[in-house]
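Hey, resending since the last one bounced:
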Amino acid sequence: MAQKPAIPKGTRDFNAAELSRRNYIFDTIKTHFDQFGFQPIETPSFEKSSTLMGKYGDEGDRLIFKILDSGDFLKKVDDKTYQSQDANRISTKISGKALRYDLTVPFARYVVQHQHELNFPFKRYQIQQVYRADRPQKGRFREFYQCDADVVGSDSLWQEVEFIQLYDAVFSSLGLTGCRIKMNNRKILSGIAEIIGESDKLIDFTVALDKLDKIGKDKVIEEMLEKGISQDAVQKLKPIFELSDGHIREKLDDIKTLLSNSEIGLKGVEELKFIIDQSLSLGLNGSILDFDVTLARGLNYYTGAIFEVQAPEGVKMGSIGGGGRYDDLTGIFGLKNLSGVGISFGLDRIYLVMESLDLFPDTLVKNNRLLFINFGQEEAAHCMKLIKTCRENGISAELYPDAEKMKKQMTYADKNEFWYVALVGGNEIQHGTLALKNMKTGDQYQVVQSEMVGVLKEKLKLN
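The structure tokens again:
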């Protein structure tokens, strides 16, 4: 017996209604990307392993899908390496390519590779799939879309202000009011690591701290201790964990006091204050700007402001957007001192949030289609001429392919949500008419074939 087909875990099929909703989100985001002056690019779905590995930290590297080399790849593995059963050592011998983990590192590669063709500062957007060998769960998939916008070639903090405005514009257009745009600065985190005496463990510290809202304070402390961060250092973090829930400016003042002896920490506070002050002075349409000192975003390439967007209160979902400033991401590919900043929209999570809040317009599914009933060879030939005329005038029309029983054809029209059905039998052909049935109301009309296009455009609301 043949095995029942299935798709890999963490991937999905999409029907017409789901694609209509996804495209609605895509189109909304693209519209605002264009309004803000970003240009579209695309990069390959897979890159050289050397391009991706080592750019996302140990946890990120483990989630990269590696692609086996073509041919007899095992010949490249010597007996000693093979017998070691070390997956990392073996994979470097048999896999030279990998599926992209995000769009930012491929973008950095693109900028370096095409640097002499680009005019800086360069603003790009990219909407493509990315792949992660993650454990699938609600809102977390192994294949998903990212919608990224980045600017490289400028260290101006006005870019961060622009990105906050972009987030707010997109989410407001989608009806997602009440989204919380959380901000922090990696320099502030470096300052905290400095004042607790653990600057050399900055990466371990930030990776653990970033999990606070997911696993809680006790588990975060436990992970820090396991990573070798001292008990004394953890004790010094107590004021950080207990930072007030006041206004964004009050929280910024509190952290400024705590970092009074850290130059890099105060620099981060100064940058964040400028971004927040300017963003609030411009106003927000429906989003809430917040400062979260525990926000770390585990990706190692961030160096300045970092963003994360939470869904409106009451919706249980991880972040639906994120990003930040990277001062030297292109430096990993040999192009130094090219600062950039970018953000990403999590399409799949945005979809789930909008679905749970019933925010999709009812008009997204194209059901203003017309089905011609098939009464036989002669009638079908006549209908095909009418269908051609419909299509030439922007009307979606089609013929049921087989001369089945009327009930079967009408059931097909109903299940596929055709708005109207056209009946053209021998009598209608003789008199130059057609019967038009509204599948929603059951009303039926006699229409002269020569007037068909005008009548259909009016009834299908295509004028």
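The mean pLDDT is 88.

Sorry for the duplicate.
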